[in-house]
Write a structure and sequence with these properties.
Strand content: 15-25%
Radius of gyration: 17 Å
Structural class: alpha/beta
Distance between the termini: 27 Å
Largest sheet: 7 strands, mixed
CATH superfamily: Vaccinia Virus protein VP39
Shape: globular
Strand order of the largest sheet: 3-2-1-4-5-7-6
CATH architecture: 3-Layer(aba) Sandwich
Helix content: 40-55%
CATH class: Alpha Beta
Length: 238
């Protein structure tokens, strides 16, 4: 990851004080809803959360009975501690990793999740190749911040460690050039709860209405002007 030591240091205590718990809770709900919209009726027995944070997504997967068994890898010690504290019943594997080496054999999991991880990764294709080695399919989700306001997006997201910026086309190209076949790619607006957490009740409501409206009626204009979320379901290219 971006200057691996600096990223690990940045996130080592990131989840220790609970300051990001509310944001992570809302974010995890919308990411899991995006995942279910993407996979439809397709089912997966073994799911690996790659860069699992403090386990909010794992908790949702368990409660919704998505995946018979779960696994997780995470670089942050505070994240690992928080995941353990959740006592998720079907979490069979929990491991520390350096961002590039997953301690599991080839094809160990039916589905891998890389949710809001790639924007932090220095060597994206190396990360994706390793994820594809371990997982038969991969769901990747990133913020789409490469808009005409990119300079502002860079300034705002710097505090969160974002070093990569995407459009739908850039994301698709990255996945294809990493040896992945993109089965489906969708663009999502942030949920109302997330927008109101970020911008306040009134401003968040307005931003949500504007972004969802533009995305529905003028999607090309929308992604050029506003930040969204891109989700892609992939498999290893043959």
């Amino acid at each position: 990851m971006a200057g691996a030591d600096s990223i690990i240091a940045m996130y080592d205590n990131y989840y220790a004080d609970g300051k990001v718990d509310v944001k992570r809770e809302i974010s995890s709900k919308q990411s899991v809803s995006h995942l279910t919209a993407m996979v439809g009726a397709e089912t997966f027995n073994r799911i690996l959360d790659i860069g699992a944070g403090e386990g909010a997504v794992l908790d949702k997967l368990n409660k919704l009975k998505i995946g018979r068994t779960l696994g997780a890898v995470e670089i942050s010690n505070s994240g690992l501690t928080a995941i353990k504290a959740r006592n998720i019943p079907n979490l069979e594997h929990l491991d520390v990793f350096d961002g590039y080496h997953i301690p599991h054999p080839d094809g160990s999991f039916d589905l891998g999740l890389a949710l809001h991880v790639l924007e932090h990764v220095e060597h994206e294709r190396q990360f994706l190749a390793e994820a594809a080695r371990v997982c038969k399919k991969l769901y990747v989700e990133v913020p789409l911040e490469h808009t005409r306001h990119l300079d502002r997006a860079i300034r705002i997201s710097e505090q969160y460690g974002h070093i990569n910026f995407y459009t739908p086309l850039l994301l698709e190209n990255l996945l294809k050039t990493s040896g992945l076949k993109v089965e489906r790619l969708m663009v999502f607006a942030n949920d109302l709860a997330y927008e109101q957490l970020s911008g306040g009740r009134a401003k968040g409501w307005l931003k949500h209405k504007i972004r969802t409206g533009f995305l529905r009626f003028a999607p090309n204009t929308a992604v050029r002007n506003f930040a969204y979320i891109g989700g892609a379901l992939c498999s290893a290219a043959k």
